[in-house]
Design brief:
Layout: E1 11-16, H1 20-29, E2 38-43, H2 51-59, E3 64-69, H3 80-97, E4 105-109, H4 115-132, H5 138-145
């Protein structure tokens, strides 16, 4: 749990260029408010997010990671999001084995027209991770102390 020191989590978002990234842009141009805690990395397809990218994000300071892409059946690369689904199921198990709480990692399908959903998802995730407090990984502390 958070120790009440005003902890603000850092959430890394891997966002599909064709859908989720466009929803983020729509939220911005529509002046929708969402937490500033997110760091967005645009990828052409959520299927291009290697599980190692997620692990590296956690090792390098992320308190939470979100992988977001097109809805199943709407992938601009036909089945990239199906690859994402398979990978993230395995990745969730790996992260738990590493001692990372399941609430720190999330996969979402957010289309270009779903700016409101983007705001809801990211706000909810920031709140969840804030309650958990900072991520404490033994490997991360070694990297940070070097």
């Amino acid at each position: 749990m958070s120790d009440g020191d005003g902890f603000e989590p850092t959430i890394v978002v891997f966002a599909c260029h064709w859908c989720t990234y466009q929803a983020i842009n729509l939220a911005g141009t529509s002046r929708m408010k969402y937490p500033p805690n997110v760091r967005v990395i645009r990828v052409m397809c959520s299927g291009r997010v290697d599980p190692q990218f997620v692990i590296e994000a956690f090792k390098n300071g992320a308190d939470g990671v979100l992988v977001a892409g097109c809805h199943p059946g709407d992938c601009h690369y036909v089945n990239g999001n199906m690859k994402t689904m398979r990978r993230t199921v395995m990745l969730e198990k790996l992260l738990q084995d590493m001692g990372i709480e399941k609430e720190r990692f999330r996969r979402e399908w957010i289309s270009a027209a779903e700016a409101k959903k983007w705001v809801e998802v990211v706000t909810e995730m920031v709140e969840q991770v804030r309650k958990l407090g900072p991520l404490k990984l033994a490997e991360r502390e070694v990297v940070m102390n070097e």
